[in-house]
Amino acid sequence: MDFQDLDQARALHGALLELFVAHAGGETNPAALARIEQLCDAAANAVDDTECRVAIRGVKSYSALFFSDDPGMEAGSLSSADYLRLRIYNALSAFRGRLGTLEAERLLRQKTEFELRRREQPEPPPLSSASVPVYENSQPRNIKVLVVEDNRDSAESLRRLLYYSGYEVAVAYTGQEGLRAAKRMRPDVILCDIGLPDTNGFTVAAALREETATAGARLIAVTAYGEDEDRRRAMQAGFDLHLVKPVDPEVLLKKIEAR
To answer: Per DSSP, what are the bridge partners of residue 218?
Structure first.
């Protein structure tokens, strides 16, 4: 998957959320539809990923159907509104994790370009061994962390970061798998995505809080959903913290330690 412009992807995400909210009460919003159609066309053409392209175009086609005069698809009917929200959710899920990966890659490119420019300057005196910053990965921390993330690339990146930082770490790729793993592992910290293939992170968090074995775990939402409403729902569901992807690794490690 390769968005030609990440700002375009963010705009699609925002428009999808607007459309989602507009239908929560059965509202019709032709302006939102026009915007979503335009963004869907641009995003589908820019995405090199069949699954994602199909999901995005599915949102466009179903949105048009929702706003049509077809008596079988009345705007505001519960079934059609719920189904549209499901299509929007699927489209967001299709590229959510990949967008975060692209953001991280862009930051890495910017860092590399900066380092190349800096090498053109005279080298500073070598640092003494005592002053060299050490990444926290040398000693076991006796802290168990469970990662619940359906994007396998993102999950593997988190697993490596945590493992080499001294944590005992396990990974689950669905909400139900995460709940089962949490009961077995009894983690100290759980990093959970919001958009999962079988359920959502809000439901997972609420279930974890109800279980005696996991009620005391520190729950951190690590997600691409960064709206105020998403944060509010995360707190209501039982999360202790809401972090928006891409998360700086050092920031994430500090939040895990701040128990």
So the answer is: 189
Instruction: Calculate mean pLDDT across residues 34-42.
Output: 67
Q: State how far the Cα of 36 lies from the Cα of 19, in Å rounded to an integer.
A: 8
**Angle 232-234-240 from CA coordinates, rounded to 5°:** 110
Q: Which contiguous run of DSSP H or E holds residue 147?
A: strand 144-148
| Sheet with 144-148: strands ordered across | 168-172, 144-148, 189-192, 218-223, 241-244
Is residue 257 predicted with pLDDT exceeding 60? yes
Q: What is the largest CA-CA distance in the chain?
A: 76
Report pTM.
0.49
The residue-averaged pLDDT of 136-141 equals: 54
The rounded distance, in Å, linking the Cα atoms of 219 and 259 is 10
Structural domains of the chain in order of their starting residue, each with its CATH number: 6-101 (no CATH), 144-257 (3.40.50.2300)
Average pLDDT over all residues of the chain? 70
Over residues 218-222, the mean pLDDT reads: 95
Query: Residue 208: which of 196, 232, 222, 191 has the closest Cα?
Result: 191
Cα–Cα distance, 105 to 131 (Å, whole number): 29
Q: What is the pLDDT of residue 100?
A: 52
For the packed helices 249-257 and 152-163, what is the interaxial angle rounded to 10 degrees?
Answer: 60
